[in-house]
Design a protein that fits this description.
This protein is of the alpha/beta class. The protein is 33% helix and 20% strand. The strands form 2 sheets. Strands 1-2-3-4-7-8-9-10-11-12 form a 10-stranded mixed sheet. It has a two-stranded antiparallel sheet with strand order 5-6. Bound molecules: S-adenosyl-L-homocysteine.
């Protein structure tokens, strides 16, 4: 797929086609604008003919807009796989939430993305396409970028698709592409420890977000199978390494599940666990998923917990709920339109 290519790879591709080198930048710019071959005006027909089989393909299977400006799109790829991407509008800019896999194999008990297991990894270009699509829909181009931030928080576990995800990070932050700074990119993981080290050692500096959701291993194992593979203490050590290498404050996500992880005992334990770390806690009242029995706490309760954490010296905020009227939680839209079986 042509969107997988960096500019220097595009130059090699163009050379392989027997074309002049300057064509590479023209094709690359057309890709960044997500142009169809018909829309490209500066390439000769015979060259278009040569690149046709490698051009990207996607279809918009669903496009939902919320009252608050959130827009959720289900994208279908050539093999019928469907992924979800979300645009979140903030005062400071436009954030795109991308999926990194079709489905997920992490099996978190509260998450809709994992209901049908993992279908396949997305390629770097397929992840990039989600950002390019929203940039285009917002009226942006390769020169005038409208998407300012990216979060890897859609379907899939980014660190379970390491090579494609890191290639995507390079592509989306490259100066000849959308040039989105790694400072404006957040990667969320359930905590695949070896790949947290790898990310730091490979020189990436995105904001690392850890889906913690429990203050001890015992409770974490009940809601996140990955907790059987890595202890919280191992995750925190990896976070320390990431912080040492990048200087970037780590963010911990904590989805509040009624009667499971929201008691005073758990909140105090969480504060003790994170005490003295340069970090931030993002509290998310669980988005109830139809297929699961777990329910979220009220926003009022979430604010109380944030207050308590702050008092105990931990920086904490409650994540704004956005797009609730358009199937907010991860994977819900895809499941509803049948993407799970695609
Ligand atoms: N696999 C990555 C990215 C997943 S989604 C990860 O685990 O971090 C981003 C966040 O949403 C994660 O913290 C995930 O645990 C959380 N999440 C998933 N389902 C949710 C739900 N129903 N309600 C609230 N948060 C949820």
């Amino acid at each position: 797929m042509i969107l997988d290519l960096s500019l220097s790879e595009m130059e090699k591709y163009v050379e392989y086609l027997g074309e002049k080198k300057f064509r590479a930048k023209q094709i690359f710019d057309a890709c960044t604008q997500l142009k169809s071959l018909e829309e490209i005006t500066n390439l000769p027909q015979n060259l278009k003919g040569k690149i046709k089989k490698d051009w990207f393909f996607y279809e918009i299977s669903a496009d939902l807009q919320s009252k608050d400006g959130t827009r959720k799109i289900a994208i279908k790829f050539a093999d019928g796989s469907i992924v979800e991407s979300v645009l979140l509008k903030y005062k400071y800019g436009n954030t795109v939430c991308v999926s990194t896999q079709v489905g997920c194999r992490m099996g978190c008990t509260f998450c809709a993305s994992t209901l049908g297991g993992l279908k396949r990894n997305l390629s770097a270009g397929e992840i990039l396409l989600q950002v390019l699509l929203f940039n285009r829909l917002l009226g942006g181009t390769h020169k005038e970028r409208k998407v300012t931030n990216v979060v890897l928080m859609g379907c899939g576990e980014p660190l379970d698709n390491y090579d494609n995800v890191t290639k995507f990070l390079r592509l989306v932050s490259s100066p000849e592409g959308l040039n989105i700074s790694q400072r404006n990119i957040s990667l969320s993981t359930c905590g695949l420890v070896p790949n947290i080290y790898r990310l730091a050692d490979d020189g990436f500096s995105v904001t690392l977000t850890i889906s913690l959701h429990a203050p001890n291993d015992e409770l974490r194992k009940q809601i996140m199978p990955i907790a059987n593979a890595y202890k919280i203490s191992e995750i925190l050590q990896a976070c320390d390494h990431y912080f040492d290498k990048t200087g970037r404050r780590i963010c911990f996500e904590y989805s509040l599940i009624d009667g499971v992880n929201d008691g005073d005992k758990e909140v105090e334990e969480l504060a003790r666990l994170l005490h003295g770390r340069s970090c931030h806690v993002n509290l998310i009242p669980l988005n109830s998923v139809k297929e699961k029995k777990l329910v979220g706490v009220s926003r009022a309760k979430a604010y109380k917990i944030a207050e308590k954490l702050e008092k105990l010296g931990i920086s904490a905020t409650v994540r704004r709920t956005m797009g609730e009227d358009i199937e907010g939680a991860c994977g819900q839209l895809r499941n509803r339109i049948g993407g799970q079986n695609a």
